[in-house]
Amino acid sequence: MEELFAFIARSRNFILFVLLEVVCFYFIINTNNYWSASFFNTSNRYAAQMLAWSNAARNYMRLKQVNADLADENMRLHAELTELQQKQPIAPATYRADTVFAKRFKYTVAKVINNTTQLANNYLTIDKGTAEGIKPGMAVISPSGIVGKIRYCNEHFSVATSILHSEFRVSARLVKGNDIGTARWDGVLPDRMKLYDISRYKPVSKGDSVVTSDYNSVFPPGILIGRVRSVGVQPNQTFHDIDIDLATNFGNLSFVYVVENSLIRQQDQLQKLVDAEQK
């Protein structure tokens, strides 16, 4: 306390000067319309700027929750869209799936906590595991397209094989051409894939959407893989050489959706019986 009084005593002239300046400023503003208007306009401008910065900071702090809410909403919309697509397939128009079949795909939202893109065999880690019903073999998609397939799980985390993996294959369909092929990464660029097994005698349009086909038991049909970037034909080859621009940007993956096909076991068992008969 003595030090405070000593400081005031030493600085009394400066403190008196500041107080007189404040009083003078007050009288100037209150007795002169021009300076009064100027002061309030300036103070309002700076106050508005401070409020804008404050709101921007609060909105930034809320981005995590906003992203989580959007991911939950997208999950519900994906489930509804998939159900509608299964009830009303492209053809024939008379076909109608039963309720169990139409609702066979179930979605779980998860956050990506690790992701590689520069390796020959890339993986990503998510924050959901067996405690949330995640199992190996389930599909992983993003809001913009396919991502990969679950490979390992523990109680609270899972590792998925990325589509940027040398052994990853997915049955794909050209939307305009309606031709079925196989999409596979060639190990070069993390934003492109190759589409194989499309006959050179079938027309392929640049920019045509490439989606998962109905032949998949893991991925729901109609999930975007990418769009045709270029079409070529190698000499003495019977298939097009097609490059695809991937729909999913693996450089900024944040939230993904794990998709469970509740009928996959029945589907695979039946397919194994057919394959065994053909051998």
UniProtKB/TrEMBL annotation:
Keywords: Cell shape, Membrane, Transmembrane, Transmembrane helix. The keyword Transmembrane helix applies. The keyword Transmembrane applies. It comes from the Bacteria. The chain crosses the membrane at residues 12-29. Residues 112-260 form the Rod shape-determining protein MreC beta-barrel core domain. Belongs to the MreC family. This is Cell shape-determining protein MreC. It comes from Nibrella viscosa. The gene is mreC.
